[in-house]
Structure to design on (400 residues):
């Protein structure tokens, strides 16, 4: 029996994976390829760094407490930008700034649920969402996904109980990379609206969606704010990972509850981060469009190199944003395979077991590849190494 909130959940997966590197020497001809984390390691673009230096020197408010729900100018910029992007009408009072998107999720759950409630999560799920629900005493109800890793609305309907407070979707998806179709997202919105629960939509990777234009029509729905809780991160868009800045867009009433959480946890979002995100929104549109094209090129490189793995029995289950989700052909389960890859192939990737319920056998068959920090050449090298692996095949793959 656990004696604390944190003991109800597992250790941080990325930190666990990093420990697999301890004591391992990588030969010069086979350096480590790290595809374990989706956070870009490149610095923010130089114009933004120069702007940040100017903010640090000349903006007194950057060093002081600010409003709990965030910098008014940034909230207004998001409201205007989102209204234009989604063809909707969003007010600054419906926007809050958080210290990263993880905090946006935690604050949202704290605003709508209590211990003993439950939230539906499509599996594979983003592990930090599961961790927060565990610590909050809110049960994560696994929502199975199909062969294309898309959740089913009818299956979700059957799992809703009187203690269900929300359905949570991540699109483009982490860990699978899958972009949820607009009609599917809308169907989940209508299901949530029908049952008087919230639909949480985490669009951390929205800026790298393969389609142009709005990825869904949720903000155009009548009384969208009564159902939708929209989450966003600036970490990926402007490489502000270490500065921790994200956003929530929902009703002012829910944000009133969110404010209590934020005031208690960190009083206000990081002021430097907010001024930096605001500058990025106002000045880096062209640069961000170029970043999107680069990520789409990497996605294309994954698909172009996939035939060499398909010949060996691998299957690409999902690909998009920063991620590829692969089914491997080996007898060894993915948690052991991932550790073995460090020593045998100089690859650090995360196993499907980090994204699935303990009792789901499919977890042992999958690996997540995060390609935020490897270009097309690096992807080709990664796939060449994976194709060269010689492990015993799983029974269903023998003879391929």
């Amino acid at each position: 029996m656990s004696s604390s909130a944190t003991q109800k959940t597992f250790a941080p997966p990325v930190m666990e994976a990093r420990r697999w590197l301890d004591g391992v020497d990588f030969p010069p001809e086979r350096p480590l390829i790290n595809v374990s984390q989706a956070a870009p390691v490149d610095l923010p673009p130089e114009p933004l760094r120069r702007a940040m230096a100017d903010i640090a020197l000349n903006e007194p408010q950057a060093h002081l407490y600010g409003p709990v729900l965030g910098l008014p100018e940034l909230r207004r910029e998001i409201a205007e930008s989102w209204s234009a992007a989604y063809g909707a009408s969003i007010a600054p009072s419906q926007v809050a700034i958080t210290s990263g998107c993880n905090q946006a999720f935690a604050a949202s759950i704290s605003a709508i649920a209590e211990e003993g409630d439950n939230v539906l999560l499509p599996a594979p799920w983003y592990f930090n969402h599961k961790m927060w629900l565990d610590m909050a005493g809110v049960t994560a109800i696994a929502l199975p996904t199909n062969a294309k890793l898309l959740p089913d609305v009818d299956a979700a309907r059957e799992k809703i109980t009187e203690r269900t407070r929300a359905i949570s979707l991540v699109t483009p998806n982490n860990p699978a990379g899958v972009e949820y179709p607009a009609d599917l997202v809308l169907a989940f919105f209508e299901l949530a609206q029908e049952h008087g629960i919230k639909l949480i939509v985490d669009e951390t990777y929205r800026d790298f969606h393969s389609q142009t234009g709005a990825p869904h029509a949720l903000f155009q729905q009548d009384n969208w704010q009564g159902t939708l809780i929209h989450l966003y991160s600036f970490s990926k868009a402007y490489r502000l990972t270490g500065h921790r800045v994200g956003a929530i867009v929902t009703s002012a009433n829910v944000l009133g509850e969110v404010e209590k959480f934020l005031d208690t946890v960190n009083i206000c979002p990081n002021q430097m981060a907010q001024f930096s995100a605001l500058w990025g929104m106002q000045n880096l549109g062209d640069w961000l469009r170029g970043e999107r094209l680069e990520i789409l090129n990497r996605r294309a490189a994954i698909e172009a190199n996939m035939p060499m793995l398909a010949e060996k029995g691998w299957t690409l289950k999902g690909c998009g944003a920063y991620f590829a989700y692969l089914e491997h052909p080996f007898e060894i389960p993915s948690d052991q395979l991932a550790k073995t890859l460090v020593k045998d192939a100089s690859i650090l990737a995360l196993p499907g077991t980090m994204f699935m319920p303990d009792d789901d056998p499919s977890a042992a068959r999958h690996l997540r590849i995060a390609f935020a920090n490897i270009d097309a050449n690096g992807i080709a090298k990664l796939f060449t190494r994976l194709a060269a692996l010689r492990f015993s095949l799983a029974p269903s793959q023998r003879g391929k």
User: Anything to note?
Assistant: The first strand starts at residue 33 and ends at 34. DSSP finds twelve helices and 13 strands in the chain. Residues 101 and 302 are 27 Å apart (CA to CA). The mean pLDDT is 95.
